[in-house]
Amino acid sequence: MVGDGASLYTIEGLAAGLLMIATAAIVLQSISVYTPGDTHIDDMLLEQLGADALAVLDLPVEPDGRTQLEVLLHNGDDGSAFHEAFYPLLRMRSFAPDDPVQYAASISFRDGDEGVVVVPYTSAASHTGAAPYTGRDPAIRVSRWVHLQAWHGLPPPIPNRDQMALLEVILWRG
């Protein structure tokens, strides 16, 4: 007759086996393999980063006040003040201090008979020393509508009148 010791060893062996199988299943399910087909994840992160940076600039400085984007555009900024405000927001991450995010911004507005006119606002070459976007690198576009009042200081061809303008920023890693 088999004693109680053998039964305990059998139960202990089965429990240890189940524990090892469960551990292996958890470890294998938690490992994620990054393949070249998953590059859309980087694009989504870059898009969220750019959208968040523009959203921060589009918050009113004081209650019922103007946003920082409106202030920059109304002061006739040539893109340098926009870079001083926007670029640090892109770089404000603790996990990737050397992330080579570059951007180029443009302002689009409707001009009567001519339809939509796009005016370059800033380029990456003027601020980061990099070549402008060529269209070959994967890039994303984030945008924000800004209300321009008749007394804004932007140079022509942007007419001095009340209007809504679309500030578009193309972001890419390069």
Task: Please describe what this structure looks like.
- The chain crosses the membrane at residues 6-28.
- Keywords: Membrane, Transmembrane, Transmembrane helix.
- This protein folds into two domains: 1-31; 37-173, no CATH class.
- 40% of the residues lie in helices and 23% in strands.
- The chain has five helices and four strands, in the order H-H-H-H-E-E-H-E-E.
- It has helices at 4-30, 39-57, 68-74, 80-91, 124-128, and strands spanning 101-111, 115-122, 139-148, 163-173.
- Strand 1 and strand 2 (115-122) form a beta hairpin.
- Helix 2 (39-57) crosses helix 4 (80-91).
- The longest helix is centred in the first third of the chain and has 27 residues, at 4-30.
- The protein starts with a helix and ends with a strand.
